[in-house]
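Need residues for this backbone.
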């Protein structure tokens, strides 16, 4: 069994969870094992999003190689749950991933290296040319994803896949952006990235190995109209903010890396 790295957490990962009693145990086991092998202390924050199953009981009784904390968010919506989790973090680096761990967690080492190098936002992208994607070829889902991402690229620093549930940030930047987050539904990723970009951050996308897992609560048919309405509102609100912002807001970044060394200044890690 891996021995947890002592000391305060350098990396905190938020896992939003709505009725995830079936998928969460295996997902948490994989995540905790991967985090325990990292060269820094880490912990997990599971945000129970008003579940009606045994999700909170599973988290309360969890015993693993890294600390797992349960938070509650009664306001329904993945965006609301992620916002609650990020605002509860204190670590120099934070991120979030889905309860099903559809993205293979071996990518965490690359994420940590990029954050340590001063990259303020690192996101997994299923459309990266080096990514390996299993089960994402259903025509309606693929068409919806391509259309959605073309509509929002300008808001998210040109990233081709804004909806992959594997995103990591400099902690102070994430908390500042999450405080401005108003979208509670599935389009929240776009607004969160846009609030990072308006602070001058650049977004680094990385290849991932991604597996489609059964049990997703997102439906193209049921949620497309909601996402479109959210995008219209997000654009309007960002336009109003840009008129009020006389200069780009500085990117809040950690003062030290996960290993305690000073964080270097990388492109996109400060005002631009």
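Answer:
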């Amino acid at each position: 069994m891996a021995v947890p790295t002592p000391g305060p957490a350098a990396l905190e990962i938020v896992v939003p969870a709505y009725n995830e009693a079936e998928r969460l145990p295996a997902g948490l086991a994989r995540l905790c094992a991967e985090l325990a092998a990292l060269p820094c202390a880490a912990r997990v924050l599971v945000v129970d999003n008003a579940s009606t199953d045994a999700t909170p009981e599973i988290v309360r009784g969890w015993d693993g190689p890294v600390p797992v904390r349960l938070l509650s968010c009664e306001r329904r919506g993945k965006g609301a749950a992620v916002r609650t989790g990020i605002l509860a973090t204190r670590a120099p680096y934070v991120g979030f991933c889905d309860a099903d761990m559809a993205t293979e967690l071996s990518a965490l080492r690359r994420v940590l290296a990029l954050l340590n190098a001063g990259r303020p936002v690192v996101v997994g992208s299923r459309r990266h040319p080096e990514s390996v994607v299993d089960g994402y070829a259903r025509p309606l889902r693929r068409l919806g994803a391509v259309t959605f991402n073309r509509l929002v690229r300008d808001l998210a620093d040109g990233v081709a896949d804004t909806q992959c549930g594997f995103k990591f940030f400099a902690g102070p930047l994430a908390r500042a952006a999450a405080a401005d987050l108003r979208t509670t539904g599935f389009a929240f990723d776009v607004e969160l990235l846009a609030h990072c970009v308006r602070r001058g951050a650049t977004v680094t996308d990385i290849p991932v190995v991604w597996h489609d897992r059964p049990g997703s609560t997102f439906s193209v048919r049921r949620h497309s109209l909601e996402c479109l309405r959210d995008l219209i509102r997000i654009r309007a609100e960002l336009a109003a903010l840009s008129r009020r912002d006389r200069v780009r807001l500085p990117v809040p970044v950690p003062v030290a890396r996960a290993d305690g060394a000073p964080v270097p200044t990388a492109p996109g890690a400060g005002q631009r």
